[in-house]
Design brief:
The chain is mostly helical. It has three helices and no strands. The longest helix is centred in the N-terminal third of the chain and has 45 residues.
Length: 106
């Protein structure tokens, strides 16, 4: 049989659980979303930069570190986890669309 203290404890633990899930969601976004965005941006920039192929790849790779860090910072600075995911998804769509439109192959 459930006691009243157990029911009250369940209600007070709900906000803590929500907060932990939001932090876990932001952490997953920072790690995997940041990697996906950096990889897509690197490939897109390597094709778009008006440099010789080795210089374009080097410049795109070096800039990917800054882009990865920026997305990690954004994942935890956004007002909500939902907003962080939406912005990260929109940011990933830009280089992905460029890669699809240019006909880049893996």
């Amino acid at each position: 049989m459930l006691s009243l203290t157990r029911i009250a404890s369940a209600w007070t633990d709900a906000p803590r659980l929500r907060q932990r899930l939001a932090i876990a969601s932001r952490t997953i976004l920072a790690i995997f979303g940041g990697y996906a965005f950096a990889a897509l941006a690197t490939a897109s920039l390597a094709l778009a930069l008006p440099l010789t192929r080795p210089q374009a790849v080097l410049a795109a790779t070096l800039s990917s570190f800054a882009l990865y860090c920026a997305l990690v910072i954004w994942a935890f600075a956004a007002a909500s986890a939902t907003r962080a995911w939406l912005v990260a998804g929109a940011l990933c769509c830009l280089p992905a669309a460029h890669l699809l439109l240019t006909g880049a192959r893996p």
